[in-house]
Design brief:
The structure is a single chain. The chain has 178 residues and is mostly helical. Helices cover 71% and strands 0% of the residues. Helix 2 packs across helix 3 and helix 5 crosses helix 7.
Amino acid sequence: MLDACAALVDELGYEDLTTTLVAERAEVAIGSVYQFFPDKRALVQALTERNLAEYLRRIGERFAADTVSHWWDGVDAVIEEYIALRRDLPGFRTLHFGDVVDVHLLDPELDNNAAIAARLGGLLAERFGVNPPELQLAVAVETGDALIKLAFRRDPNGDPAVLAEGKAMIREYLAKHV
């Protein structure tokens, strides 16, 4: 059902997505959809949480690699994996981390980017022993999000020049605070 939802949200957008269409695409009865998801928001929330788990899994794999030995390599990996998800993961290009649905989809207290920043801050601390201040990490995540959106507006695969500038800008900004 989540795979069907991802494909449909890419094809139709969130507004035109319906649980009926998801059931048809997944080849299940509508009652099966409602057994797990009371409405399309809950369905998209589950897809967003799955996407976040995939993002964190990929970052964890990258952080475990010998080629990621310094915190700025970790920052690059975080950005590169986000870009890869935008390019390759069904549903991610449209949903990102759920802002099109609700800015508090991932956490009722934090907006989605703040929730992402908190998780990334924990990963950077765990792997590299660095703790960017909360405000600066939030600014870096918001900046990265905006620049990645710009890159994908300019080029369907992400404008390489904008992406390179974004990575450099975020790395230099965080270097002042780490």
